[in-house]
Amino acid sequence: MKDIGLALNKSAATVSKALSNSSEISEETKKMVLDYANKHNFRFNTLARTLRKGNSRLIGLILPYINTPFFSELLGQIENHMSLYGYNLLVVQSGENGEKELECIESCLMKGVDGLIISSMGHSSSFTCLKRLSDERFPIVNIANIQQCTDATVVDASWGDLQQAKVSRLVEETCSVVLDRFDQLLTV
User: Fold this and answer.
1) What is the DSSP letter of 138?
2) Which domain holds residue 61?
3) How many folded domains does the chain comprise?
4) Looking at residue 165, which CATH number applies to its domain?
5) Which of 14, 67, 131, 140 could staple 152 via S-S, CB 3.0–4.6 A?
6) Are 57 and 115 a contacting pair, CB within 8 Å?
7) Kind and range of the H or E element at 4?
8) In a structure prediction context, what are the per-residue pLDDT tens digits for the chain, which is 188 residues long?
């Protein structure tokens, strides 16, 4: 952004606001900055933005499998819905294996996700981790009937019902809960 600012005789702050489509910047300046950025293949450094703002706009989505019709459709619709709110997904699959589920949770955390959506099988190892995260007020939404698992928000659908659930209804409910819960926890 500093380089763009130097080239256009603008401050780095002005360039940043123009690239973020801020209402503080004139349309003429925005167009000039965007044209220059596109011409020179400028890309935001999302890591730098994450460090500066303290959130990544990245959500971990942990599913047992992604190659089944149900979970594939669920994944697609959650991704579409969350992208409307500026979130990206990090998708991993646990294979219904407790150790793998725990590895998936830890992997998502190491990559700096802002929260988790998980269809947990309720294995004791991941239960302990999810409970700890929930106690730390880390945003988690379970999409299964693991009510006893944590005090994280649970979208109430039994595992059998999940297999037959109308995916769009489940996605709408899940995404609504995710956004509400994330807003509550991330703004505290």
Assistant:
1) -
2) 54-186
3) 2
4) 3.40.50.2300
5) 140
6) no
7) helix 2-8
8) 788 889 999 998 898 888 878 889 999 999 999 898 888 887 765 555 555 556 678 889 999 888 887 788 778 888 887 787 778 899 999 998 889 999 999 999 988 888 888 887 777 778 788 888 877 878 887 776 433 333 444 444 443 444 444 555 666 666 666 666 666 654 44
